[in-house]
Amino acid sequence: PQGWEGRLNRRLPYWDQPEVHDVYRGWRRVLDSYEGDRIAVAEAWLPHPERLAAYTRSDELHQAFNFPYLMAGWDADRIRRVVDASLDAAAAAGAPPTWVLANHDVPRAATRLGGLDRALAALLVELALPGSVYLYQGEELGLDEVLDLPDEVRRDPVFLRSGGTARGRDGCRVPMPWSDDGPSLGFSATGRAWLPQPERWRGLAAATQTVDPASTLSLYRRALRLRREHPALGGDGWVTWLQSPPGTLAFERPPGFVCTANATDAAVAFPPIGALLEASGPVDSAADGGHVLPAHTTAWWSVGG
After folding, report:
1. Is the pTM of this model over 0.90?
2. Which of 123, 143, 202, 264 is a good FRET partner for 217, with 20 to 30 A between their CA atoms?
């Protein structure tokens, strides 16, 4: 692979050296010397969950961003392999697993995964997994990557140091829109922002989406509320994979929860499961009492109750 993903698969001399673990052990001792709860999270760009877990041993950092999961993209087989490896590695380290789909170093999920429908389907898979989930600002609005920033406004050192040959990461760092009016769409009282927002983002502003039950923000809020309230979601535990058609995912978490996901370009029929809790898109009923998931859609189900 080329670009940032390719770099992760090469062991660079300034990344992931054994000596850094003594540094983090020292940091952990400092944190533990204070009263109250504190947490240190590693932004460790490593391609394999096993190497990543070394940073979350009991005397080092508490958690680490799971970039192997981010790199799995919207591919059912890759997601399943990374989930299994991540759960195993986290258990061996005695740390909670983490899941991340986006951050300030990669193109926004709605663009990188090939569309907002895929990004929302991937979100519901992520939120259904045990452990901690990290959400990057603006993803809850369905923001896309800003690809047409003029060269004169770009700030990323990657762009500046390359003489403009590498576009850098500014496209995912454009300030999020809070309102649909004003020169910075509510981002600052001065009306200024360090990068210009595209005009199309006015319709994606937080204030606009808050009052729209069909918006991306409303879906995020419903899903996060279910994750807090449903006894199967969040917290520790494992997933039990269920049989499902090629290009799809189906897993169970006790008590009484099943997640089904269709990562293909065509609708897929599933057998009867239970009562629909939430979905990233419309779910149709099948003649046999099952359901049909449209392309790039994830659904949550309540079962056994």
Report:
1. yes
2. 264
